[in-house]
Amino acid sequence: MDLDFKNKKALVRVDFNVPLDADYNISDDTRMRAAMPTVQHILKKGGAVILMSHLGRPQKKKNEDRSINTEKFTLKHVVDHLSELTGVTVKFCPETVGPIATKMANELHMGEILLLENTRFQKEESAGDEKFAKSLASLADLYVNDAFGTAHRAHASTTTVAKFFPFTNTSFGFLMENEIKNATRVLNSPEKPVTAIIGGAKVSDKIMLLDKLLDLADNIVIGGGMAYTFLLAQGGKVGKSLVEKDKVDMALSILKKAKENDVNIYLPEDSVIADDFSNDANFKTVNSNEIPDGWMGLDIGEQARRKFEAVVLMSKTILWNGPMGVFEMENFSNGTKSIAYGVAQATSLGAFSLIGGGDSVSAINQTGLADKVSYVSTGGGAMLEFLEGKELPGIKAITVG
Ligand code: AMP
After folding, report:
1. Atom from ligand 1 closest to the CA of residue 323
2. Which of 9, 13, 31, 247 is catalytic?
3. What 3-state DSSP class applies to 136?
4. Fewer beta carbons under 10 A from the terminal one: N or C of the chain?
């Protein structure tokens, strides 16, 4: 972030899309804290900060009634906490663009912070509208994008806005730089052996990632609900486990390509199965290919845990995306926990580990091991697309101009 911020107003796109409780208190401020190095840097260098972010999805596409619940989605909810985090009394603008925003931006002094109202209150935001983006750009001298979590969206505040600044007046923030640096480390000549641990509910969400990994990884460990489509494809009996029957052929072609590419695929030998999708269900451990009718696999079993951990421990580069089971339920969280411990231990032995994607991030946070891995990404969908090898519009807007 080598812009000269002295006496400049910087329009900074952050991701303050934080979870709020019923009384609109912030229940997890990770995303806000992640943006602080960039905000503090600009202030320290003698600039002023104009922050913009979205919060939730105030404009539901399929909603006939397009009126917005402004009370629920206003960024006003984060102002006090932002003042605490920055040590500066944050000014809040009740609109995103318009005469009040222009006036407040004009009157902003160096060292001050102005937070604009939720960018998604404007339908022009998701449309990437030029006029709206131009109005945003008119508020400041410089543009900084530090919202990695929305970098895969070609929205006005994440992408279009950049073109209304001279190319040399735009930059990534520190968070964005870090995300790109760490993901690139996995993608570009990573130290071998490379192991990807892929889990979560569905194969369909991870096909592109798996495809990319077949050219990159030495080992792919597959757990979670998606494992059962692979087990079914190989002739296993999976009871009423989560399966995508229409992805069986896809699973077979992934297995075939893995063989051709010399990539080891590890599926769970055993599973913790339950007779209901509930923490109170009866459960037991069986061979993953012999799940009785009426039962479903909700976690990897003990043998699988040991095997997966052994693979992780001999790896030098590790990517983890998706839980090994229904980790939200205590009885089915052991597989995910043991992977978290394994990744942390491998990291202490010198491996580089990247935790990328929503649920594996909550899993690593739940185990309290987030600071024992190399990098925990803040961008769920954005990280997934970056790892799939896609060009993210929010990144392209700044690197290409
Ligand atoms: P994803 O967003 O695709 O990473 O999926 C995460 C979700 O997958 C979590 O909510 C898990 O509860 C769920 N999940 C993981 N393993 C299973 C399983 N064996 N059966 C059903 N759901 C699962």
Report:
1. 15
2. 31
3. helix
4. C
CATH of domain 9-173: 3.40.50.1260
The CATH number of domain 190-387 is 3.40.50.1260: yes
Which ranges in the chain are annotated with CATH 3.40.50.1260? 9-173, 190-387
Q: Residues with Cβ within 6 A of ligand 1? A: 200-202, 205, 224-225, 242, 297-298, 322-323, 325-326, 328, 358-359
| Ligand 1 closest atom vs CA 360 | 4
The CB density around residue 224, as the number of other CB atoms within 10 Å, is 31
CA of 325 to the centre of ligand 1 (A): 6
Which residue's entry shows tokens 């750009």?
Answer: 137
Alpha carbon distance 245, 268 (integer Å): 19
With DSSP H G I counted as helix, E B as strand and the rest as coil, what are the percentages for the chain, rounded to 5?
Answer: 40, 15, 40
pLDDT tens for each residue of the chain, 401 residues long: 889 999 999 999 999 999 899 999 998 888 999 999 999 999 999 999 999 999 988 876 655 555 677 888 999 999 999 999 999 999 999 999 999 999 999 999 999 999 999 999 999 999 999 999 999 999 999 999 999 999 999 999 999 999 999 999 999 999 999 999 999 999 998 999 999 999 999 888 899 999 999 999 999 999 999 999 999 999 999 999 999 999 999 999 999 999 999 999 999 999 999 999 999 999 999 999 999 999 999 999 999 999 999 999 999 999 999 999 999 999 999 999 999 999 999 999 999 999 987 688 888 888 899 999 999 998 888 998 999 999 999 999 998 75
Q: What is the pTM of this model?
A: 0.89
Bin 395: left if φ > 0, else alpha if -120 < ψ < 50, else beta.
alpha
User: Which residues, listed in sequence order, are joined to residue 109 by a DSSP beta bridge?
Assistant: none
Q: Which residue's alpha carbon is at the smallest distance from atom 12 of ligand 1? A: 326
Assess whether 223 carries a catalytic annotation: no
